Request: fold
Amino acid sequence: MKIIAETANCVGAGMCANVAPSVFDIDAGTGLVRVLTEAGDVPADQVGAVSDAIAVCPAQALQWAQDDGA
Reply:
């Protein structure tokens, strides 16, 4: 599964980084979410934590990438 972080919507609350610190961080320069995994790929053992991060994001800046069938 892949995660998309819309930095244009991010408010830098950091809740995602608290819930799933191996997947998300807050960039020191911009103060916005940064995805730490290669190409947004979420390891299977982090899917639950990322789903929780999506749920608690106050700006709704996180979402699962849609499978385009390719």
